[in-house]
Specification:
Low-confidence stretches: 192-200
Structural class: mainly alpha
Shape: elongated
Order of helices and strands: HHHHHH
CATH topology: Growth Hormone, Chain: A
């Protein structure tokens, strides 16, 4: 469960990102944005693990290990480039969760055991994406945040839809682990333009 203070911070920074007012943006301490992003990402990781449990239980996939899981890496030569990659994949995972919710609703009535957690995951991704907008602009004002639409599901039969959701949720879980590690390893992000981070 999210704390009220974390939820308020995330909502406020999301509003800033949506309105995109430079004066308000620069008035927010960079470290506050980074710390909130870490907390939102950690909470989102917890919610995604819970979603995976409920999804596998509902669909009878508790013993299934999916193949062809979406890319869970974070790439970039420095932290600004890594932020761009994280932003792009956050948007892609948001779209994948929309497909999952669509399938859950149309084919299985979106039972609350899955639907409630899925809605929290979708909101967490929405908050994460907008926090990334704010942080990227503070770290590197000229940064360009580009996105690509993930490929739509190619199969329409029931089992393929179940597996699409499983792959998407497992990929999101693994990716969030890597994102949190990247954010925690970043050094001097909010102090100057000489950014130091471990790269792989």
């Amino acid at each position: 469960m999210s704390s009220p203070s974390l939820t308020r911070r995330a909502l406020f920074l999301t509003l800033v990102a949506l309105q995109w007012r430079p004066a308000l943006l620069h008035a927010i301490p960079c470290q506050d944005v980074l710390d909130t992003l870490k907390s939102v990402t950690a909470l989102l990781g917890f919610e995604t693990k819970l979603l995976l449990q409920e999804y596998k239980l509902f669909h009878g996939l508790t013993k299934v290990t999916p193949s062809k899981v979406p890319d869970a890496s974070v790439v970039g030569a420095d932290f600004p480039e890594q932020l761009q990659d994280i932003f792009a994949k956050s948007v892609q995972y948001s779209r994948r969760m929309e497909y999952v919710e669509q399938y859950q609703t149309q084919d299985w009535g979106n039972p609350e055991s899955v639907g409630q957690v899925l809605r929290r995951v979708k909101f967490g991704l929405y908050s994460q994406t907008n926090l990334l907008r704010v942080l990227a602009r503070q770290v590197q004002p000229e940064v360009l945040l580009a996105t690509e639409e993930p490929p739509p599901p190619s199969d329409n039969h029931g089992y393929a839809k179940k597996m699409y959701g499983l792959r998407a949720i497992v990929g999101l879980r693994d990716w969030l682990t890597r994102v949190l590690q990247t954010l925690q390893e970043a050094r001097q992000v909010c102090h100057d333009q000489t950014l130091t981070t471990r790269t792989y």
